[in-house]
Amino acid sequence: MDDQTRLEIEAAAFRRLRDHLRTRTDVQNIDMMTLTGFCRNCLSRWYQEEANARGIEMDKAEGREIVYGMPYAEWQEKYQTEASDAQKAAFEASPKAH
Question: 1.10.3340.10, 3.90.600.10, 1.20.1250.20, 3.30.70.1650: which CATH number matches 3-93?
């Protein structure tokens, strides 16, 4: 596989992941962190860091809007729920990768 094809496939896979996470508003970030060690905020930070590394100015809010598909505050208002005691305990017990 040539580099351009690999890059296009990776970009397409990223967009599918981003779009999937946008539709799964029932899945809370705390659950993602507990199970996978990353969440939407991590993904948006990685996006922002890669843009910044390439000389593209992007702040945290812009990175989050790319991943969430809307301003973060709007997503929180519409979809974020208060973490339960069980969710908090599972998060605290999970391995911390970063």
Answer: 1.10.3340.10
